[in-house]
């Protein structure tokens, strides 16, 4: 094996190792390697719940905008009682 092939092999091994480290969540720290715990992100879950609530409110508002006036008054009363 000539020196050029050896350099290419070392670079390939290093690249493969870094891809595997990233895939399995290993992070290099000052004194060794730590595993990152992968799980549900609480911030993402909170945002999903907020978006769901906003979509529900938009659906109510769309229904209010397209219904007749008497239905509109009843829905406004329901919303006032809910908040």
Report on the structure:
- It contains 3 helices and 2 strands.
- With 83 residues, it is mainly alpha-helical.
- The chain has one domain (3-27, 41-81).
- The chain has a two-stranded antiparallel ribbon with strand order 1-2.
- The longest helix is centred in the middle third of the chain and has 25 residues, at 42-66.
- The termini are far apart.
Keywords, please?
two-stranded antiparallel ribbon, rod-shaped, 10% strand, 83 residues, Phage shock protein B, single chain, mainly alpha
Itemize the secondary structure elements and their pairings.
Elements: H1 3-24, E1 26-29, E2 32-35, H2 42-66, H3 69-82
Mean pLDDT: 81
Shape: rod-shaped
Number of domains: 1
* Distance from first to last alpha carbon: 76 Å
Uncertain regions spanning at least 5 consecutive residues: none
Relative strand content:
5-15%
Number of helices: 3
Biggest sheet descriptor:
2 strands, antiparallel
Describe, in short, the structure shown:
This is Phage shock protein B. With about 80 residues, this protein is mainly alpha-helical.
């Amino acid at each position: 094996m000539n020196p050029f092939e050896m350099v290419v092999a070392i670079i390939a091994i290093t690249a493969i190792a870094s891809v595997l480290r990233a895939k399995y969540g290993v992070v290099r720290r000052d004194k060794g390697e730590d595993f990152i715990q992968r799980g549900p992100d609480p911030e993402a879950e909170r945002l999903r719940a907020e978006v769901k609530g906003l979509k529900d409110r938009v659906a109510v508002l769309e229904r209010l905008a397209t219904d007749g006036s008497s239905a509109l008054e009843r829905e406004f009363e329901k919303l006032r009682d809910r908040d």
